[in-house]
TrEMBL record:
Its cofactor is pyridoxal 5'-phosphate. Its EC number is 4.1.1.20. Substrate binds at R281, R318, Y322, E349, Y378. One of its GO terms (biological process) is lysine biosynthetic process via diaminopimelate. The keyword Lyase applies. It catalyses: meso-2,6-diaminopimelate + H(+) = L-lysine + CO2. Specifically catalyzes the decarboxylation of meso-diaminopimelate (meso-DAP) to L-lysine. This is Diaminopimelate decarboxylase. Gene3D superfamilies: Alanine racemase (3.20.20.10), Lyase, Ornithine Decarboxylase, Chain A, domain 1 (2.40.37.10). GO terms for molecular function: diaminopimelate decarboxylase activity; pyridoxal phosphate binding. It comes from Salinicoccus sediminis. Pathway: Amino-acid biosynthesis; L-lysine biosynthesis via DAP pathway; L-lysine from DL-2,6-diaminopimelate: step 1/1. Pyridoxal 5'-phosphate binds at G236, E278, P279, G280, R281, Y378. Homodimer.
Amino acid sequence: MTLEYINNELSVNGNGLTGIAREYGTPLFVYDENMIRSQCRKYHRVLEEAGLDYSISYASKAFTSVQMVKLLAEEKMKLDVVSQGELYTALKAGFNARDIHFHGNNKTAQEVEYALASGIGLIVVDALDEVALIDSIATGKIDVLLRINPGVDVDTHEFIQTGQEDSKFGLSIHNGSALEAVDAIKESRHLNFRGIHYHLGSQLSTESPFLNALEAVYSWLSDSSLDIEVLNMGGGYGVKYVEDDRRFPIESGFRSITGKLKRLAEKYGYPLPHVMIEPGRSIIAEAGTTVYEVGVIKEIPGITKYVSIDGGMSDHLRTPLYDAQYEVIPVNRTEGGDTEANVVGKLCESGDIIGKHLAVPADLKRGDLLAVKTTGAYHYSMASNYNQMAKPAVVFVDDQETRPVIRRQTLGQLIENDVL
Ligand code: LLP
């Protein structure tokens, strides 16, 4: 993100974070809108340059909201949704249902009804049982992809690996179940088989698993004499949270993925498919920063220092859940040097940690603001009301203005559904 210090104050696209935090309160998610748009355009550029027929569907789960969906439509993105709620949000934003596809390893009958009634473009079938479910609800033809499991291991946190043989997602190409589902789709009355989908995992830093998956998939298609029109390669392109992380190289990575695809299609005698991808994190993660206000600072002599901020695992779950590492920096830089501290949240769990052994300003005091970088993906979307914490507000900042995108939850909203 265009996050930089101007006169020792952290700013986004030239807008100081102190003023923004005072206006909207903390904790606050601040997004660099220019960066979200430029990530969308980067994907478009690289796929266009490859000369492919393609579409890019943003994975809503990374962060969605009505304003976000409107921005995506402006950037000619399509949309991947995994629940009725994500679909509802997209439709409320006026997004064209034909440009949305529906995922999920356990779509309910109600979700399938809702998706079909909305005129959704594609459903991604995840299980054999779903063929019959969709067929029994649909009245007209519905285009589907089959989620296959290519059996490719990836190097990422266990919770976000998905393309390995032992997975709740998709159907294996190695044990016959994927082919059985293709046959069932073709025999169904309402499902129109368009192609396949796979998603290997998330936060992947190299193209090699994607190349391995293409090899496995094309050899399977050829062995099975199966034709596809659409090949959806999923998301998973990693971002840089801390210095040691390797960001997935979008330009060079996609050049080698699309090159491999062309070679394999030629080798096996297939026409080039319509290529779909579903990036989530890499569109939005690095565009987002969380701003917190410092409260209690506690020194435990001979042990460590704890700096408590005014949010925590209710808006920052990735550290407690995956031990994810973040960079924490002061909004207002001082000359006083750094000291080591654990930056923690205010929720009632010892695991409520933003980061351990971090360098923070030695003169940090109550009321100062801290920024946690790269929190744009899977933060707001995984936020909860644990401890009856209100969900933070979200703002987008471009060169011109700061605009509210999601308001802070109110106390009243916390008990909105309670029977009084
Ligand atoms: N497509 C499918 C079918 C997916 O399951 C996912 C992510 C994506 C696309 C987008 O992947 P991305 O480009 O964002 O890596 N809560 C976890 C991430 C879970 C991702 C689940 N699926 C985290 O905070 O790391």
